Amino acid sequence: MQTAFQCLKLILTARAAGLFRGLSVATLFVWSATALADITPSKTFLPGSWPGSGPEPAPVSTAVSQGDVVWLNISVLNNSTTPVTALEGTDPLPSGMTIATNPAPFASAGCASAGPGDFTATPGASSFSFTGLTVPAFAAGVNGVCEVYVRVQVTGPTGTAAGTLATLLNTIPVSTGPGTGVRGSEGAATVFNANAASQSIQVTKLANLGVAKAFSPTTVPMGGTSTATITITNNAAAAVGLSTLTENLPASLTATTTPTVTCPGGNPTSATALGGSFPNLTFPVGATLAASGSCTVSFVARAATQADNGYTGTNTVPANGVGNSRGLNSPVANSSLTVQSPLLTTKSFTPNPGRANELVELVLSFQNRSSFAISAGSFTDKPFSRW
């Protein structure tokens, strides 16, 4: 209970008959106490499957999976017969919990919300706030209540073994001033939460994604092409949305086709182009890796022509290079393409072996291993020192 004190000054005047002719004046100060509202916030987590309308489901009572989205409900009670206006609150989310995407936050009818502008809830942010709401007055033996709802994603712990349970504790602290806790106005007085409000939720760590890479064929001549394939495997029994892919092509390799993705059992089920550009590629909207399923990204790469006899081009997806909706880790994946000179030169002697001072025939053979013509040039052949 919060209390406002008021002071009333009474001036009493009395005439003392028969004693003296003057007046006796006394001043009495009377202090009165006015009870202000106790605004009491509390919190629950509701299943993410609730559409945000209709009967409210029972609170979450079992562990959720890493990356699941749930509703966070903040309920503010008012035990005063006067409404609390200009209600504001700030909820710092714990590590492993962030604001999720649509639907947008909203408040119950009694909160007199003006709409989305009453809420600050940036997807991916680690804090949520509201302002300009109202908590109805206590009436008919029932506390006034304002209910606020926002969707949060529980990404949970990282770096621990699959199946590990972690507990995230979400706390609204006691208000120590504007921008902290829950505060409002009862008339001209400020009221606030005198106690913290906490609620925990358990999250189960899912298995990390698997990533593998390959070239086919694995050896090409300079100027030749090979199909690069990246296979992303979901090792968890829960669907995962795909967002970005970091694909580091070496300078010696150039993509000649737009990368496409196919996710059997997920989405898309047929080859669909990725957006962005190397190394920062983006999956098409709605790309989903099915539970225990896989997606394949493929494109054609051309090997550059260089002034040497051949080289190796290594293509890399770095650690955590697969952006996904559940915040799952992914390993480094490398694949190498062997690139040969397009011109293969061989030589032979006939007869071989030969006798001293015997004439032998030297045959030089030039083979073009590429799909394009090679212009005539020159060559230098260094003879034996005893020729």
Explain what you see.
This protein has 387 residues and is mainly β. It folds into three domains: 35 residues, no CATH class; 166 residues, Immunoglobulin-like (Sandwich), CATH 2.60.40.740; 131 residues, Immunoglobulin-like, CATH 2.60.40. The protein contains no helices and 31 strands. The termini are far apart. The N terminus is likely disordered.
Please identify the top-level CATH class of the largest domain. Mainly Beta
Low-pLDDT stretches: 3-34
* Helix run count: 0
Looking at the structure, the CATH topology of the largest domain is Immunoglobulin-like
Distance between the terminal alpha carbons, to the nearest Å?
111 Å
Radius of gyration: 38 Å
Give me the count of strands.
31
Question: Helix/strand-derived class?
Answer: mainly beta
Mean pLDDT: 86
Compact summary:
Helix content is 0%, strand content 51%. The chain has strands spanning 2-15, 23-36, 39-46, 64-65, 68-78, 84-92, 97-99, 106-107, 119-120, 127-135, 144-154, 165-172, 182-186, 189-192, 197-204, 210-216, 219-221, 225-233, 240-246, 253-255, 260-262, 272-273, 275-277, 280-282, 288-289, 294-303, 310-317, 322-324, 333-340, 343-350, 361-368. A hairpin with a 2-residue loop joins strand 23 (275-277) and strand 24.
